[in-house]
Amino acid sequence: MGHAQVSGRHQNGGRPVKIRLANEKPAYILSNAQDVQGLFRASKELTFEQFSVRVLEKVKKFPREDGARMEADTSGSATVPLHPGVPESSRIWRAIHANYDSHLTGSGPVSVLTNRFVRLFQEELDQVAPPSGKGGWTTGCINSLLEDKMFRASTRTLVGDAIFDLSPSFTADFWEYDQNFMYFLYGLPRFLFPSAWQARERVFNAVKAYIAQAWENLDPRQHTTTPGQKDGGPDFDDHFGSQLVRTREAMYANYGLSLDGRAASEMGLIWSINSNAIPMVSWMLVEILSDPHLLSRVQQEIWNCTTPTTTEDYGDDVRPDVPATLDVSRVLTLPLLNSVYAECLRMRASVQAIRELRTEIRLGGYTLKPGNLVMAPSCLAHYDEATWGLEGHPASVFYADRFLRPVKGGDGYQFYNPATTGQYFPYGGGAAICPGRFYAKAEMLVAVALFLFTLEVRPVGFVDGRGNPSTRGPSMGTETRGTMRLDRDLKVLFRRRERVTA
Ligand code: HEM
């Protein structure tokens, strides 16, 4: 996410360039991989907290009083504070990150969230078309379908079902708000985009109502005041949803954040979990479905992860020809699917790692002055021909096998990423690196696999925003706020595959 639009190659030998941004502090732009690596390592000299508060306030309606409270903590997010003498009880940034460590980033929480997502996404997908044999083909568009079904599954995984009951238009409102994200960030006045303001208002009010209702219904025994700790409650409850949100809410309340402040923050979390992963799954499916040979290879990999029916579980219904379940843990290890994922992230995750200089730092042989911003746009590194170009497969063209190499001394291929952290950073880096990256990866891989496992899909052609046929597929814009949005959709015919359910 970021303010600037960056395009083209660096023309200055990779030295940091200083630019002035609208309504922001001056910024140095880094384009050299070693400098980017230096940026991610320099967590003492660079902070992200102050900039995060500005984004919260501009885009997510975070109240100023709460912003001031967060800004007052300048001790950073790391275990060791940036300066001594700060009581642990005042370290809100540390508490936020400790909470991510306990409830989002580790392998335990990732598998709890992934398993729940798989169940809910399967439930949502089973509703998009009648069971096999009970109807013909249904028409739909990949991105629109995911913006509805995957959004519901991943939001229900995070915050439960109540929000959709409280606000039946929540999905549509969310995407209208998301589409206008950059205008909020630029600080455009309300009268220039009133509909998006109203959509944001509705999303915000729904999140606020959900939190208020969850607090009213919460079992006091599940309430924790110790940030980052398990709260003795279940992984998931019917009021808050995931333990991640329940413990985060308790932590924020403990720091005295207002209900509006907490609603803004949780609206931000709902945005984080959906707004990058869903368009990325669309890119993956569009690439796979646009190439019949790739589709059949990916499908073969996925089919190798299905479990046949057994007489023990299915009695007389046993059908050796029809799969029963998809083995999610095997899906996560599929080399070609992982390569498609990594290639889509390389090409379509256009992120801007932004930090603020606390103290002077030397990068690329230059002294960067405190008070300024430093930005590392991924698009320069991710399209660098020297790192990514392969014979017949330039960096600018999607190549499903780019992240594969032959297994040494064996058969077949394995996943391989040749890049350093400064050359490939779809999830940012350093202390502020995306805390959802492990869950995001699992969610995206299983979403693609479940989609192709559940539905038989036949591409029809590309369509524009009004559903009219388009002569081209989605193109890449110049925004640098995360996953690029698709400006074209892929129209498909689909029907549910035959599947035996116990
Ligand atoms: C394609 C998927 C995703 C991409 C490309 C992505 C990318 C990013 C990036 C670039 C950042 C900023 C990192 C930095 O400044 O160095 C970020 C932050 C964040 N991401 Fe993700 N992300 C994705 C999915 C997710 C998911 C599924 C979650 C789940 C909750 C998530 C949660 C977050 C949160 C909470 C932050 C803010 C961290 C903070 O303020 O310290 N992300 N993400």
From TrEMBL:
Cofactor: heme
Alphabetically ordered keywords of this record: Heme, Iron, Metal-binding, Monooxygenase, Oxidoreductase
Annotated family: Belongs to the cytochrome P450 family.
PANTHER family named in the record: 24-HYDROXYCHOLESTEROL 7-ALPHA-HYDROXYLASE, CYTOCHROME P450 FAMILY 7
Listed name of the protein: Cytochrome p450 family protein
Organism the protein comes from: Apiospora saccharicola
